[in-house]
Design goal:
Elements lengths: L1 H13 L8 E8 L5 E7 L4 E8 L5 E10 L5 E9 L2 E5 L11 H15 L12
Antiparallel strand pairs: 1-2, 2-3, 3-4, 4-5, 5-6
Keywords: Cuticle, Signal
InterPro entries: CHIT_BIND_RR_consensus, Cuticle_Struct_Prot, Insect_cuticle
Pfam families: Chitin_bind_4
Length: 128
């Protein structure tokens, strides 16, 4: 439920105020067993669709998307999964970190080889 509220707050925070917006679509299904689906769309371009199922750890697992127009007039679409691993959004509008340098991949491979060969490390990362 917290994830749903968080996603709604994000969508609402980025949506431009439009006092004349009309609800074009508002569909809600709740099967009463933890499975649900809802979709809504407004005339000012706000859209949200979510499908929820019961999770393995008591949470609601959800997948869906939402769309809104940013202050510059660009349409932003976000797809998401929310489950025991948290809220996981995907969108071209979300900044991505630069790729790791090749030497970091090489160091990670060396560390994995050492770990697989039985080398153990202390709390500070030094071989024991």
């Amino acid at each position: 439920m917290k994830v749903v509220l968080f996603a709604c707050l994000i969508a609402g925070a980025f949506a431009r105020p439009d006092g004349d917006a009309e609800v074009l679509l508002d569909e809600r299904e709740d099967q009463g067993d933890g499975n649900f689906r809802y979709t809504y769309e407004t005339s000012n371009g706000i859209f949200k669709e979510t499908v929820g199922t019961p999770g393995s750890e008591g949470q609601s697992n959800m997948v869906g998307s939402y769309r809104f127009t940013d202050p510059d007039g660009n349409v932003v679409e976000v797809r998401f999964t929310a489950d025991e691993n948290g809220f996981q959004p995907e969108s071209d509008a979300i900044p991505q970190p630069p790729p790791l340098p090749e030497f970091v991949h090489e160091l990670l491979a060396i560390a994995e080889q050492q770990r697989n060969s039985g080398v153990q490390f202390d709390d500070q990362g030094f071989p024991i």
